[in-house]
């Protein structure tokens, strides 16, 4: 309802022009109206953000977000960040405003590292680095730090789009070679480890532990046969989704924006004996020694993203650690794959069953592209968003990372069954 029109002592009042203006007034170009004008002030309600109590216990915010990344985050994490956003723990500042060298952020980044070490049982032999530039920047950083010069060989298992990109970038800074490729099979399988043609002179063996686009995931990891025994893994899309024996790896790197935080921070876990021998041409920000020597604070880091990662690590620990998280992920994925397999060929997942990803589930509809578009459109109307497959492969893709509630997967499979019944 509109408020009543009022004038107050603080209103802008335009008075009637004087009958006998002064010379200075007469010279003024401002022509005022002959009647007093009044300003009407109408109160407008300011919307307030949703409070935690306005959301259901199941964490239903109206949609289930199946995006591949940036991806859904735990509701409890978002709510805690919301509560601390304006005044971070009594500091009078947001964590986005404070100095990265102040005591508050120093405590936040140290706790984030400590909790990550606890989650993954990271040994003292490895550095934990909070970096920028995404996992894609690590495609160059790994060979620059591990290979003394561009003539040093390195082996790559190319199991999908991301490991292929890593290989192509590494060729600029090393004598990278493909030890196995799944391209002929359209990246729907992983190699038997004996089929990986490793060069014993290679500096490292590189894998992508989970291919986000194609939905293949290692259930175990190959043993490097190079003299240095260095295994490198891009774990971007299954990082902290299950326990991992970090001691088996020389380098693990991961973009945070799928399982552990927002976009903007990349985590690298690097064996300490591999730090400090980067190629002379290595940019300072790509040299692991730069960040190890400065506790990830050489320059201003992505403070808010690291803070969110810290909250996610707390949440994962509170769930009982990664062994419990893996059980939940296996249950969610099992429900979805069972629905696909029980559809009589209506839905098709092309990935070999033994290496199907628990994180990214790609599938197609046997009836073709038009039905896939209809499926995605109808799912969106039902509150299930970001189900469109990657532009390079098409189809449908459901990314069901740690923070995807079981209820989200249950709603999706119920919709899939209903869609099939309505569109035989």
UniProtKB/TrEMBL annotation:
Which top class of enzyme applies to this chain?
Answer: transferase
GO cellular component labels: chloroplast stroma
**Per its UniProt record, what InterPro entries does this chain match?**
Aminotrans_V_dom, Aminotrans_V_PyrdxlP_BS, Pser_aminoTfrase, PyrdxlP-dep_Trfase, PyrdxlP-dep_Trfase_major, PyrdxlP-dep_Trfase_small
Q: What is its EC number?
A: 2.6.1.52
Check the record and name the SUPFAM superfamilies matching this protein: PLP-dependent transferases
Q: Which cofactor does it need?
A: pyridoxal 5'-phosphate
Q: Which GO terms describe its biological process?
A: L-serine biosynthetic process
Catalytically driven reaction(s): O-phospho-L-serine + 2-oxoglutarate = 3-phosphooxypyruvate + L-glutamate; 4-(phosphooxy)-L-threonine + 2-oxoglutarate = (R)-3-hydroxy-2-oxo-4-phosphooxybutanoate + L-glutamate
Positions of the region Disordered?
1-27
Q: Does the keyword Lyase apply?
A: no
Compositionally biased region (Polar residues)? 1-11
Question: Listed GO molecular functions?
Answer: O-phospho-L-serine:2-oxoglutarate aminotransferase activity; pyridoxal phosphate binding
Q: Which family does it belong to?
A: Belongs to the class-V pyridoxal-phosphate-dependent aminotransferase family. SerC subfamily.
Concerning PANTHER family, the annotation shows: PHOSPHOSERINE AMINOTRANSFERASE
Q: What is this protein called?
A: Phosphoserine aminotransferase
- Please report the organism this UniProt entry assigns to the protein: Leersia perrieri
């Amino acid at each position: 309802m509109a408020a009543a029109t009022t004038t107050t002592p603080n209103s802008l009042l335009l008075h009637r022009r004087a009958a006998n203006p002064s010379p200075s007034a007469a010279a003024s170009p401002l022509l005022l109206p002959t009647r007093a004008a009044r300003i009407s002030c109408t109160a407008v309600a300011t919307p307030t953000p949703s409070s935690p109590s306005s959301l259901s216990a199941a964490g239903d915010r109206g949609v289930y977000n199946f995006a591949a990344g940036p991806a859904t985050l735990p509701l409890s994490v978002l709510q805690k960040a919301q509560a601390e956003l304006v005044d971070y723990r009594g500091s009078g500042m947001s964590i986005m405003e404070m100095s990265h060298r102040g005591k508050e952020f120093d405590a936040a980044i140290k706790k984030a590292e400590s909790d990550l070490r606890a989650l993954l049982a990271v040994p003292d032999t490895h550095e934990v680095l909070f970096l920028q530039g995404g996992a894609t920047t690590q495609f160059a950083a790994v060979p620059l730090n591990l290979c003394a010069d561009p003539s040093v060989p390195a082996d790559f298992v190319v199991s999908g789009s991301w490991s292929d990109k890593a290989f192509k970038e590494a060729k600029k800074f090393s004598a990278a070679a493909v030890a196995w490729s799944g391209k002929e099979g359209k990246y729907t399988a992983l190699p038997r480890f004996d089929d990986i043609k490793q060069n014993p002179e290679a500096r490292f063996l590189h894998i992508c532990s989970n291919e986000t686009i194609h939905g293949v995931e290692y259930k175990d990891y190959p043993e490097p046969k190079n003299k240095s025994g260095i295994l490198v893994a891009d774990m971007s899309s299954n990082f902290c989704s299950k326990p991992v024996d970090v001691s088996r790896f020389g380098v693990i790197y991961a973009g945070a924006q799928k399982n552990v935080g927002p976009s903007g921070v990349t985590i690298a876990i690097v064996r300490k004996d591999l730090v400090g021998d980067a190629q002379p041409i290595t940019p300072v920000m790509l040299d692991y020694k730069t960040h190890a020597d400065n506790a990830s604070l050489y320059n201003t880091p992505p403070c808010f993203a690291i803070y969110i990662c810290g909250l996610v690590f707390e949440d994962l620990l509170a769930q009982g650690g990664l062994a419990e998280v893996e059980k939940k992920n296996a249950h969610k994925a099992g429900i979805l794959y069972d629905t696909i397999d029980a559809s009589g060929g209506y839905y098709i997942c092309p990935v070999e069953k033994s290496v199907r990803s628990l994180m990214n589930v790609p599938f197609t509809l046997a009836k073709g592209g038009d039905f896939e578009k209809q499926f995605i459109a109808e799912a969106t109307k039902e509150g299930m968003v970001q189900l469109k497959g990657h532009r390079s492969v098409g189809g449908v893709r459901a990314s069901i990372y740690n923070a995807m509630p079981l209820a989200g997967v249950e709603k999706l499979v119920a919709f899939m069954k209903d869609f099939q019944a309505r569109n035989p």
